[in-house]
Specification:
about 130 residues, Transcription Regulator spoIIAA, five-stranded mixed sheet, alpha/beta, about 35% helix, elongated, 4 helices
């Protein structure tokens, strides 16, 4: 009996496109929800999304982000500093995503407040705004 060779199944990596939604929630608070894989090529789009939020405090929901690189980490720290100088704040929602692990490994969670859920972030920000 001849042994048959089986080839391992091919894996296809799908790169999720960057998507964002910006919502002004009132009380000086905006929600920016992003999804996809965020890297150097998405930096301009992320920067535009954050800049389009006119409220001083922004909750950035990264729950739908499957990957982010050091370029994005730098953007987040820079945006947090810019908003603090203007009297606002940038807070992040990780929701246990892969992005959360990257933020923690890079130490971003020590510079920018990171919440486990969108609800906990909104609760904290709305209490602070009241």
């Amino acid at each position: 009996m001849e042994a048959s060779r089986s080839t391992p199944p091919r894996t296809v990596k799908t790169v999720l496109p960057y998507r964002s939604t910006v919502a002004e929630l009132g009380s000086g608070l905006a929600l920016v929800s992003v999804s996809g894989e965020l890297d150097l090529y998405d930096e301009p789009a992320l920067t535009r999304s954050l800049a389009s939020a006119e409220a001083p405090t922004v909750v950035l929901d990264l729950s739908g982000v499957s990957f982010l690189d050091s370029t994005i980490c730098g953007i987040l720290v820079g945006e947090a500093k810019r908003r603090r100088r203007a009297g606002g704040e940038l807070v992040l929602v990780g929701n246990g995503s892969r992005a959360t692990k990257t933020l923690e490994l890079a130490g971003i969670d020590r510079v920018v407040q990171l919440f486990p859920t969108l609800q906990s972030a909104l609760d904290a920000m709305l209490v602070g705004a009241a």
